[in-house]
Design brief:
By secondary structure, the chain is α+β, with helices and mostly antiparallel strands. The chain contains ten helices and eleven strands. The longest helix has 31 residues.
Length: 291
């Protein structure tokens, strides 16, 4: 019972954070969130939440723990795309295709809530604020992919690692797991290397260099940003892609349309754009590795 109550509180907190002006949930919205709690699943560390090649008819919200999105290539090599944090939605774009394009594995023990297409459709029709709060994480993820493509094409190794540190700091701050300057890095250096496309020794050297130049300090897995402005200038980091504008007008338009078909069009368009960007990202990284 205590675990169920904690899950509901966590879901409410995550969703409210992305509702216009952080307005509290209404009673009918609270009922919907409590219904989601009934679909909670617990995933052990190292197990897959989404498996590449399988078919899915819904999405998952990560309530607790961390996930890793990746793709297995035909030669068995793995390409990592991003880290999924509590409050993020996974299973997208898999739910729009005949089979999942990528996998998501649990980096830690993970708790997720499953949402079927039928429940998503009802949410868009009757609870547009909740629907938009859910899909905020998808828009945020697409924006991050754009920055990661910039990493591959324009940032050197030192700048990539600096950008990654700032991005993780900002994302963890948004979910209450850091203050924007100090945070616990949830990834090993091997996983960081996978994400930014560098070798583990290279990651180690870049982190030491950031520390030696007094841009960050490290104590075990804790990272403290010492000189934020200099680090942001080095990485050309603009955190605006990790924040969102007020969703009031968007929610109003969804409510006026009163239909899933119209409101889903931007999401479907985003699916194709994201898939295309990711495939080009893989090609670029593989080409860079061949040089």
């Amino acid at each position: 019972m205590a675990s169920e109550a904690r899950t509901v509180r966590t879901l409410m907190g995550r969703l409210t954070a992305h509702i216009p002006e952080h307005a509290p949930l209404t009673e009918p919205e609270v009922v919907v969130v409590k219904k989601l709690q009934s679909a909670v699943r617990h995933i052990r560390r190292g197990s897959d939440i989404i498996v590449q090649g399988r078919k899915y008819d819904g999405i998952f919200i990560i309530v607790d723990g961390f996930g890793l999105r990746y793709k297995i290539m035909s030669d068995g090599k793995r390409q990592v795309f991003n880290i999924s944090l509590p409050g993020d939605m996974v299973g997208y774009p898999a739910c729009f295709f005949d089979q999942a394009l990528y996998s998501v594995t649990a980096l830690t023990n993970v708790t997720v809530c499953a949402i079927t297409f039928a429940d998503m459709a009802e949410m868009f029709r009757s609870f547009p604020r909740l629907a938009m709060a859910l899909f905020w994480s998808t828009a945020n993820e697409t924006a991050m992919f754009g920055e990661h493509l910039t990493d591959v094409g324009r940032r050197n190794a030192y700048e990539r690692v600096a950008h990654f540190v700032l991005e993780m700091s900002a994302r963890l701050r948004e979910i209450g797991m850091g203050d924007g300057r100090t945070f616990i890095m949830p990834l090993s250096q091997a996983k960081i290397a996978d994400v930014v496309g560098l070798s583990v020794p290279h990651i180690n050297r870049m982190l030491r260099r950031l520390r030696d130049e007094r841009l960050i300090d490290m104590k075990g897995s804790q990272i403290q940003i010492i000189d934020y402005d200099s680090l942001a200038a080095l990485a050309d980091f603009d955190g605006s892609y990790l924040s969102h504008r007020s969703l009031s007008r968007m929610v109003l338009n969804f409510a006026r349309n009163d239909g899933v078909a119209v409101s889903a069009l931007p999401a479907i368009e985003m699916v194709h754009q994201t898939s295309s960007h990711l495939d080009r990202d893989i090609d670029r990284r593989r080409a860079a590795g061949a040089r």
